[in-house]
Prior knowledge:
- The protein is mainly β.
- The chain folds into 2 domains: 23-176, Leucine-rich repeat, LRR (right-handed beta-alpha superhelix), CATH 3.80.10; 194-333, Ribonuclease Inhibitor (Leucine-rich repeat, LRR (right-handed beta-alpha superhelix), Alpha-Beta Horseshoe), CATH 3.80.10.10.
- It has 3 helices and 15 strands.
- It has helices spanning 79-82, 286-289, 313-320, and strands spanning 24-26, 46-48, 69-71, 96-98, 118-120, 141-143, 163-165, 185-187, 206-208, 228-230, 250-252, 272-274, 299-301, 326-327, 330-331.
Amino acid sequence: MDDKVESSRTPDPDAEDDDPSSTLLDLTSYQLHDLDAVELPSNLTELDLTANRLSSLDPRISHLSNLKKLSLRQNLITNAALQPLSRWHEISGLEELVLRDNQLTTIPDVSIFKRLLVFDVSFNEITSLHGMSKVSNTLKELYVSKNEVTKMEEIDHFHQLQVLEFGSNKIRVMENLQNFTNLQELWLGRNRIKMVNLCGLKCIKKISLQSNRLTSMLGFESCIALEELYLSHNGITKMEGLSSLVNLRVLDVSSNKLTSIDDIHNQTQLEDLWLNDNQIESIEGIAEVVAGSREKLTTIYLENNPCAKTPNYSAFLKQIFPNIQQIDSVVFS
């Protein structure tokens, strides 16, 4: 969790703006309890109130009709404090709303914002996505990490979604993803997921399922655009289902139960390969297994495997991969 930013600064309402035409007011880390001493110019398009001590919303914000971005990150905002927001019609053109790291327990009513593109309620105490169905279907980025959510629900209307972040929750099942044909990034690390179900997301480029309960790598076969796949800290015993992922650049299967390196001979774009903290006995034959990426590979991690104790282990890998820049924690100049 991000640390609270401590600062002794206080805003000077009489200070001149360096740029008179600026429409951004950044009050990050002023440790404000309210905005009484702050002037809010009527032409503001961005208001950043990150890392203060606000427990309520200043009603003057409701009259900032040009406002596009509002950040209340790292404050003391509760469910009750956000209730007026649903009636602030003058700022209904808001495109980005950040409520990260507050004291919310439910999804707030933001249905008034019909053009919302970014919605962030991460680092709260939200237990359910009930109410998410009222969030505008224009949404492109949704962040709900570090909450207490158990079920992926009321999200299937987000047809334009490009980034979905549900890391550090209590989700057991991947579901309701079938309409996300534009999704580029899916972050589901630190949950309780046992099985991959991606509903054929052919455009997705980044997937993280680190620190879950997976025992198999099957389920990614149709994600042919995938470039980065993070599966560390699971219980995976075999590398499989990767042959169709020809665009893969980063593969992280560290801290699993692998005994061999398999099924990556088709990868010609692979740059980073993380296999550390497994049970891989030998690197014999690795040249053939990673033949497609011999020229591209720049980073490989194999430490804390039995094979890493092989004499001249590092020199052997250097011979195989002519452009290698890092082996385990050793970086070559």
